[in-house]
Amino acid sequence: MYRYHPFYPPTQRPYPPIYTRAQPSYNRNYPPVETKTFMSSAGKTLSLMEDAQKVLQRIKSSDDFSSKFMRAAQQSNLPEVHKLLQTIGTKVQPVVSFNPDGVRLVFDEKLGQVDCCHLIVIVRWM
């Protein structure tokens, strides 16, 4: 609880303002909801999450894999990084980028000709 200095009266705070102006109501007609694409996109994202989990599990559990992966990434040896990721056996090959702080893996999937979902995983090593 805040105490006031004995020589200064406490500041009086007014009540919050009351807005009397009515907010305009908009009657908009929305198209009917079509969940087919939304649900398909969610399913594809779940499969991307499984692939990302495989990659993260391998990084977490294998010291040999992690050291090879980091060494290749720090040397900007992108073909070697992709080769290491292919050994995991994921359905989707992620787009890899790295910087001195860590690695960024972008798993993306298409639904027909439309990009439906992207899963971005950033893992730090510094």
Explain how this protein is built.
InterPro entries: YuzC. The structure is a single chain. The protein has 126 residues and is of the alpha+beta class. It has one domain. 37% of the residues lie in helices and 21% in strands. It has three helices and three strands. The protein has helices at 36-61, 63-74, 78-86; strands at 95-99, 102-111, 114-124. Strands 1-2-3 form a three-stranded antiparallel beta sheet. The longest helix is centred in the middle third of the chain and has 26 residues, at 36-61. The two termini are 42 Å apart. The model has no long low-confidence stretch (mean pLDDT 85).
Roughly how many Å apart are the termini?
42 Å
Strand content: 15-25%
* Rg value: 26 Å
Q: What's the number of helices?
A: 3
**What would the average pLDDT be, to the nearest integer?**
85
Pfam family, one: YuzC
List strands and helices in order, with pairings.
Layout (H helix, E strand, L loop, with lengths): L35 H26 L1 H12 L3 H9 L8 E5 L2 E10 L2 E11 L2
Antiparallel strand pairs: 1-2, 2-3
Short summary of the structure?
The chain is of the alpha+beta class.
What keywords describe this structure?
126 residues, alpha+beta, three-stranded antiparallel β-sheet, 3 helices, 3 strands, YuzC
